[in-house]
Amino acid sequence: MTEYRSRILQLAFGPMIGHLVNTALRLGVLDRIGEGGRSAEELAAEGKTDLQSTTRLLRALTGIGLLTETVPGVFATTETGACLRTDHPESMAYVARLLTEPSMLRSWEHLGESVRTGEPSFPKVFGTDYFSFLKDNPELSENFNIAMSQGTRNTAELLPVACDFGRFGTVADIGGGDGTLLAGVLRANPALRGILYDSAEGLSQAAAKLEEAGLAGRCDLVTGDFFASAPAGADAYLLKSVLHDWSDDRAATILRHVRSVLPPEGRVIVVEAVLPDMADGREGGMNYLSDLNMLVNLGGRERTRDDFAELFSRADLSLVSVVPVGPEVPYFVIEAVAA
């Protein structure tokens, strides 16, 4: 029974762990420790924080596996903790900060109301929807964009292997943000051209990203609203982690706009998680936590294969295949054609 009690306590402490991680990131603790070890005294002096409280914070980070205390009072990052440094090649610092931001966690306090009503709680807490809130908070908006890039990095490497983009002449990435995903597709397919379509805020870092990748000449940046239109001129329309942000009605609206410009032989390629028909505990339940996060913060949802088939049918599209992106990422390539 001790094992079960311990697991229950771990779960109950979950929200506190989120605040612990967010605080460590805001204080820059992992970045200042870097690749070597640093003492609590050094970190407290540099961060202008109380020494005893800093030591307690560092020991808590050690307790959850992000740091190790090499000698009394001296701390180094573990392999997991190193991924929360912003300079690490596999950094997830901005993703972790996004998911642990108080503005996102506050909506979870009203999960019960969202379960009762089926509506997001974020607008009730903050008086506006999540993306409007980001637009009014530039620092959070920048963090969101970088987090989306970090969360897409592995998918950008694996997607061109899982999906044959050589079939197409031009691919339009709808809601593609800074272009991390599209850049991966274009690099793997030298003859392919791209269209990157997003809001002005979403595209704010795209030009620099594509220029750095040497792809600016092969990709057009188009500012727009996918609830109002989709850009013409592509034979493949790519949507990664877009539809799950929205309710079925709003997601169907996005797809209808894509369908209106889809050529007869074109393809719609959705990259998202696909829930199994029956719930399981794989991936620590992250897809189900993401599903509820979509509910409370955005009003969106994760979907099963049948859910996607139904959603496509509402936009005069037909699902043709669902294949995993790869073992290292929790996404699937979901292809649809004109019905």
Automatic annotation (TrEMBL):
It comes from the Bacteria. PROSITE patterns: SAM_OMT_II. Keywords: Methyltransferase, S-adenosyl-L-methionine, Transferase. The active site is at 244 (proton acceptor). This is Methyltransferase. Residues 9-84 form the O-methyltransferase dimerisation domain. Residues 108-315 form the O-methyltransferase C-terminal domain. One of its GO terms (biological process) is methylation. The keyword Transferase applies. Pfam families: Dimerisation (PF08100), Methyltransf_2 (PF00891). InterPro entries: COMT-like (IPR016461), COMT_C (IPR001077), COMT_dimerisation (IPR012967), SAM-dependent_MTases_sf (IPR029063), WH-like_DNA-bd_sf (IPR036388), WH_DNA-bd_sf (IPR036390). One of its GO terms (molecular function) is protein dimerization activity.
